[in-house]
Amino acid sequence: MKLLLVEDNAELAHWIVNLLRAENFVVDSVPDAEHADAILGNQSYDVVLLDMRLPSMSGKDLLSRLRRRGDNVPILMLTAHGSIDDKVDCFSAGADDYVVKPFDARELVARIKAIVRRQSSEKAVSLVCGDLHYQFNTREFSQKDAPLPLRRREHAILETLMLRRGKTVSKATLVECIFSLDDEPSVDAIDIYIHRLRKHLSTSTAQIMTLRGLGYILRTRDA
């Protein structure tokens, strides 16, 4: 999953980025709403973590701007106050959830996972493709009840395919999902990761198929 953090406190932003990357999230971080607005016009994210009070343009104003132009990216607001007024402001502007600073790391991760789960068409606690299982609460894969050991980017690609299982996912989308703004994106690397994933799934009833010129699709072998 790929996240965008919009937080002007450099120390807090650094802590959140390290925390989320340790949880196998791909994370981009910007210090103000203007940068975030520009990036969101060109990049897709699973969740945006948006500070309520930012310099120049507030998080609430950015959120309102996004919703007015039809951008429904899930938003988790970060607010320094847990007042009823702040909560009402968050939801009135179109936020999906909020967390009050200072927050516990486990709560932040749990709320992010809950938002992504709610975006799933089935709103289930797990996803299944053949004998391949994905648990939302742990973000772990298992095959035939055995954990599937994956490297970070292999996990990111399989997670993206699982969340969109049965649908074609372009190579450009996968590049966007696994590389942050600090990385040097490589389209060729996708082929390598797909090859590795197919090895992991060699005995699975789930398979990754290539649709030439279109991308990849995760589905059961008998589909």
From TrEMBL:
Concerning PROSITE patterns, the annotation shows:
OMPR_PHOB (PS51755), RESPONSE_REGULATORY (PS50110)
Q: Which GO terms describe its biological process?
A: regulation of DNA-templated transcription
Q: Which SUPFAM superfamilies match?
A: CheY-like
Any coiled-coil ranges, and where?
none
Q: Which GO terms describe its molecular function?
A: phosphorelay response regulator activity; transcription cis-regulatory region binding
OmpR/PhoB-type domain boundaries: 124-220
Source species, domain of life? Bacteria
Q: Which residues bind DNA?
A: 124-220
Report the residues modified as 4-aspartylphosphate.
Answer: 51
Keywords for the protein's UniProt record, in alphabetical order: DNA-binding, Phosphoprotein, Transcription, Transcription regulation, Two-component regulatory system
User: Where in this chain does the record put each Response regulatory domain?
Assistant: 2-116
Q: Does the keyword field hold Transcription?
A: yes
Q: Where are the transmembrane segments?
A: none
Q: Which GO terms describe its cellular component?
A: cytosol; protein-DNA complex
PANTHER family, sorted: REGULATOR OF RPOS, TRANSCRIPTIONAL REGULATORY PROTEIN TCTD
Q: What is this protein called?
A: Response regulator
Q: Source taxonomy lineage?
A: Bacteria, Pseudomonadati, Pseudomonadota, Betaproteobacteria, Burkholderiales
